[in-house]
Design goal:
Length: 393
């Protein structure tokens, strides 16, 4: 897959920024010594993304929520380049620190992006703009202690209407950015008609609280916690899109989340492959580089096949002007998440004892990659989704 001159320039610019700015901070982020959120705001500004966000919100179209598929057809080249830049940013961040991407993707994409796409003019200005500029930290709250894979069917968090407010009770768990969140996009069941609706809550709303950060296997710089709602009073104006949000909107969000996860899987695999290939050429055992041994070559060749296939899927999808179907999003997510864990594990085999040490990075990338197989729908849920779609025709 050949990148154009402009695409190469975008990639090089992001890569050098992440190498010079994100990499040196990663240890402090992982240990919890430094929070990721001030840097997130700085990165958005340094890369000029805040200007792009302001342009988007100030444009004539900003008053009406538009889905990707509803955008005007003019300026396709610019749109294609913007889509490429967005995907390449996820790749370059994830090559260095997938945990940072986890927090960034949820705050700016799942929380901010969903409000920008589905919210009312008031909600976009008050919530989406500061979220997408990194001035506020956002959370996307669907999972509950008893409602994981069956998020809708088993959802217990409830709202009831009381005059000019809704009142919410319940709890969510495994919420990315929960401990630091300013704005929470929360899905709850409306007691009146049993429908699931999305609400925008602020940290300051009385009755909203968050738990302590969970201790996790990976993605350690991305804080995760429970979120509790104890008779939280929510103004009517904070129902997402004025009440027009529905399950279809969540399904579209999930498809986008799955594509983001797929890109992360590719990025982790690509970085781990490069680290392992370079190490194999340097490391000598028995008087020669381990890359000379065919058993090591076998691992490297198979890792390359995974990375090359992943690259074709990622760039092929980014190039497409069509929104990805739920079937293809699930298929990409399942495959690329597995590529991420598989190639990262292979890299540890090649580096052996050194691969097990933090200094060589592949152990962290492998731990981080594991979440990609669980979040945004587990492997089993992707298989069920794929099977449902292929058998429906
Ligand atoms: C670090 C981290 C961050 C997260 N961030 C967020 C977030 O920001 N917002 C949010 O809403 N959620 C978040 N999640 C939650 C995540 O999306 C869920 O963990 C995931 O959806 C699975 O739910 P569960 O863990 O309850 O597993 P369960 O649903 O209990 O699944 C347990 C096992 O049963 C299998 N299973 C379940 N149902 C079926 C079935 N019908 N057929 C076959 N097998 C089945 C599953 O595949 C799995 O193997 C996060 C999770 C983690 C770990």
């Amino acid at each position: 897959m050949q990148l154009t001159e402009t695409q190469n320039a975008i990639r090089d610019m992001y890569r050098s920024y992440m190498t010079n700015e994100l990499e040196p901070r990663t240890e402090a982020f992982e240990s919890g010594e430094e929070s990721v959120f001030p840097f997130m705001k700085k990165m958005i500004k340094d890369l000029g993304l805040d200007v792009a966000v302001d342009q988007m919100f100030n444009s004539d179209d900003s008053s009406s929520a538009k889905d990707e598929s509803e955008k005007p057809t003019g300026g396709e080249d610019m749109k294609a380049l913007a889509d490429f830049a967005q995907a390449q940013l996820i790749i370059e961040v994830s090559r260095i620190n997938p945990g940072f991407q986890q927090s960034f993707g949820v705050s700016v994409g799942l929380c901010g992006g969903n409000i920008a796409m589905r919210g009312t003019a008031f909600q976009k200005e008050k919530y989406a703009r500061p979220l997408m500029k990194g001035e506020k930290v956002g959370c996307w709250c669907l999972t509950e202690p008893g409602a994981g894979s069956d998020a809708f069917g088993s959802m217990k968090s409830k709202v009831r209407r009381e005059g000019d407010h809704y009142v919410m009770n319940g709890s969510k768990t495994f919420i990315t950015n929960g401990p630091d969140g300013d704005i929470f996009l929360v899905y709850a069941r409306n007691e009146e008609d049993n429908s699931i609706q999305a609400f925008i809550l602020e940290r300051e709303f009385e009755g909203l609280s968050t738990g302590k950060p969970f201790k996790k296997m990976g993605m350690r710089c991305s804080p995760t916690s429970e979120v509790f709602f104890d008779n939280v009073r929510i103004p009517l104006e904070n129902i997402l899109g004025g009440g027009n949000s529905d399950r279809d909107h969540v399904r579209k969000s999930l498809s986008r989340e799955r594509m983001g996860i797929s890109i992360m899987g590719y990025a982790i695999a690509e970085r781990c492959f490069e680290i392992a290939r370079d190490y194999a050429k340097e490391r000598e055992q028995g008087g020669q580089p381990i890359a000379n041994y065919q058993l090591i070559q076998n691992r490297l060749a198979r890792m390359y096949i995974d990375v090359a296939n992943a690259r074709r899927i990622v760039y092929g999808t980014v190039d497409s002007s069509q929104e990805l179907s739920a079937l293809d999003a699930s298929a990409a997510k399942l495959y690329l998440a597995e590529v991420g864990t598989r190639v990262a594990t292979e890299a540890i085999h090649i580096l052996a004892g050194y691969g097990y040490m933090e200094e060589y990075k592949v152990e962290r990338l492998m731990r981080d990659a594991m979440l990609l197989e669980l979040g945004g729908g587990t492997t089993e849920i992707q298989i069920l989704t794929i099977a449902r779609h292929i058998l429906a025709t």
